[in-house]
Structures are given as structure tokens and as C-alpha cells.
Amino acid sequence: MKYLLLPALAMVLASGCAVAGEPAATMQAIVVMHGEARLQTVPRPSPAAGQVRIKVHAAGVNPADWKRAQQAPDSGRIPGWDVSGVIDALGPSVRGWKVGDAVIAYLEGYGGYAQYAVAPVEHIARKSARLSFDQAAGIPLVAATAWRALIDAGHLRAGQAVLIQGAAGGVGSAAVQIAAARGAGRIIGTASIQNAPYLRSIGATEIVDYHRTDLEEQIRGLDVVLNTVNAATAALSIRMLRPGGVLLSVAGPAPAQLCVAAGVRCIAIQVLDEIGTPKSQILAEIGKLADEGKYTVHIDALLPLAEATEAWELNRSGHTVGKIVLMVPQ
Fold first, then answer.
1. Backbone angles phi, psi at 118, to 5 degrees
2. Residues 138 and 119: beta-carbon distance below 8 Å
3. pLDDT value of position 217
4. CA angle 301, 115, 110 (to 5 degrees)
5. Which domain covers residue 212, as residue numbers?
6. What whole-number distance in Å separates Cα of residue 244 and Cα of residue 264?
7. Is the domain of 21 the same as that of 55?
8. Which of 241, 277, 293, 326 has the maximal Cβ count within 10 Å?
9. Does any domain span residue 226?
10. Is residue 85 within 8 Å of 54, Cβ to Cβ?
11. Cβ distance 113 to 80 under 8 Å?
12. pLDDT mean across residues, the chain
């Protein structure tokens, strides 16, 4: 990794935030340059009205991080949706929070891979005392995605039968735990069979090897399917639902004509849309579950911030169990 001081303009782009009042304050952050994740020295952001600044302890890694770097290889921006840390500054008009509060935050795609990050109060929640900062950093994006799918769009109810395609991944493992907390009667997860003990430990009642080619023949009559794998898996999942069931996909839409023919509702989930349950409420609900011992985060790999490239390579492999997390230097 290279340690460089960017020109003033590039530094402002990288931080994505105004630095008025702190002209000399800098921080270490990962910046996307030439499609790579480079450790740089950039300005420390200042919180605007309705925002807090967080001294970041850990940052979660998501596929969207490296995908955005591929799409905009010279953006000069700091990637990262998920952080955990401690509030160290309050913007104007912020109420109900104080410096020193331990929080998690949903950053909408930028700013997380850094020693400091700013977030609107609508996207933060208290960190559960039962989780480490490393674990807590694995919550925001995947939990918001799973909640938006199962609760806001799928209206999951107690006693229903639900299938999570790709249950061992970040969104999948969050969904298993949310379904269990909501009292789903049957929670089936597709995964490598070696991950069966882990999935059972977080609430799955049945594990099916995703390598099987006859899944749609063996599993039928489901109320809800959540697809986290790809569009092809979404299409295959249609036959597993009962008429009137719902297919939720965060990994590509299912063919509309097949959904209509089967009499099922097919919904492509867009977590960026500011609809449904507010982000802060979702994060607070997940925090309550964690406090009650009903939600945890399995860390597959814990790497230093400077090794973001290595973290992306691991994530890109598609075999992550739970989350990959970056440790941020204090």
C-alpha cells in the first residue's frame, strides 16, 4: 500500500465532506484510485447539521464496495457502507446523542474505510454491548437489506415457511436471524453443507446443499423465498413457492412472466430506496435482538484497514461466511 498526500482538490473529493474549521486535521483512509484501494492521508470530515462524526473502530466489507470501485475506478472516494465506533463530534441541531456514545452507522456506500466518518442521525443506532466493535461493523447494510426484504416487502409472519438462498453470506445470515426472531415456522437455508452447524446455531431449521440440482423439485409450498445469490437462482426459486407466495430477490429480478404464470409475487429489493422502516429503526431493532442474544455476526476474516485490497479479493471469491471486517487504526 502507498501512503500519499493527495492534492487539495482530490482530498476534498476523497473525504466527500466539508473541512471548514479543521484545515489541518487529517486522517488515514482508503481511497479508490485507478480501480485500487489505496491508503491515503485525507482531510478529516466535519459533521454538518443533523450529522455526527464517528471515530471509526471497524468497517464492514460488502460486495458493493469493490463493485463500485470497478464502475468508477478513478472516483477518488472513500468506499464503505458500514462502520462501528464512538461519536466524537456533533453537528448543529443534533439532539439525543452525545460525544462518547458507541454507535453503528449506515453510510450509503461511501466514507466507511477511514479513521473518521460522518453520518446523519437517521442512519445511526446504539451499538449493542453484547457485540464487539468488529462484530457490530458487520450489521448495517446486510441487516437493512434483509429487513427491507423480509419485513417491509415480504411481510413475514410467525409460522410461515421461508427459504434463504445463500444463507451463510452476510445478507443470508442476517435474514436467517430476523426470520427466527419473527417466529418463522420453517427456516430453510441453502449453503455448503459444511456451514450447516453455523446456520443451525443462528436459527435455521433445515440446511440444503446448494450444489443439489433438484432443489426446486425437493422443496415446495413455501410462503417466502429470499434470493441473495443471482438472477438465475431467483428464476429457479419460483417453483418452490405456493400460489400467492412471495419471491424477494436482492441479486437480480426473476422473469416477470414466470412469476405471473406461477401465481406468485416477485419483488426486486432496492435497499437504497428511502421507503419502509427507517434505517435508524432497523439498526435499533437489530441492536435489541443482539442484546437479547438473538442476533450475532460471524466474522469470517478480520484484516487491517491497509489490507482492503486483500479483503476485497476474499469477498469477491463468493465464499464468505458471515462478514469480512476491516480494523481501523486508532
1. -110, 145
2. no
3. 83
4. 80
5. 142-268
6. 5
7. yes
8. 326
9. yes
10. yes
11. yes
12. 91
pLDDT tens profile 180-205: 999 999 999 999 999 999 999 999 99
For 42, the 3-state DSSP assignment is strand
* CATH code, 164: 3.40.50.720
> Is-contact 154 161, C-beta < 8 A?
no
- In 3-state terms, what secondary structure has residue 11? helix
* Contact present, 297 and 320 (Cβ < 8 Å): no
Residue 92 pLDDT more than 70? yes
Alpha-carbon torsion angle 145, 149, 153, 159, nearest 10: -140
What angle, rounded to 10 degrees, do the helices at 170-181 and 279-291 form? 70
Beta strand residue intervals within 62-151, DSSP E: 82-90, 102-106, 116-120, 124-126
The pLDDT tens digits of the residues spanning 30-60 come to 999 998 999 999 999 999 999 999 999 999 9
d(CA 231, CA 165): 11
- For the residues 293-308, what does the mean pLDDT come to? 98
Structural domain contains residue 245: yes
Q: How far apart are CA 177 and CA 165, in angstroms?
A: 14
Closest among 133, 205, 139, 132 to 167, alpha carbons compared: 205
Global confidence as pTM: 0.90
Residues 59-80 pLDDT 10s:
999 999 999 999 999 999 999 9
In a domain, 280, yes or no: no
